[in-house]
Amino acid sequence: MPTLVFVQPDGSRQPVTATVGRSVMEAARDHGVQGIRAECGGECSCSTCHCYVDEAWHARLAPPAAAEAGLVEFAWEPRPTSRLTCQIAVTPELDGLVLHVPAEQI
Asked: What are the structural domains, with CATH classification, of the chain?
C-alpha cells in the first residue's frame, strides 16, 4: 500500500497508508487528517479537501479536469500546486506523495 504524507501548517507530518484505486481524500478521511473536511464526500463540488501538492510531486500528477480546476479557484489561497484530494486517485507510483494542508478550508 502506498504511503502519503500530509504536512500540517505547523510543519508536522502525518504519514498514512492508502489503498490503490481510492482517492487521496478517502485516505485522509480514513486516517483523521486534520484540515481535510471533505464535506461533499468526494463529489468534486465543495473544495474542502483542498491541498497543495509538494513541488517535487506536482509535475508527476495528471493535470486537473475542468471541474476540479474551476473549484480550486474558490479554495482558500489557491496556488499553482493546489489540487482537490478527492480527484487524485491513489496509484502505486504515488508512494511517498507529499501534500500540504492549507491553514483553512472554505
From this structure: 3-100 (3.10.20.30)
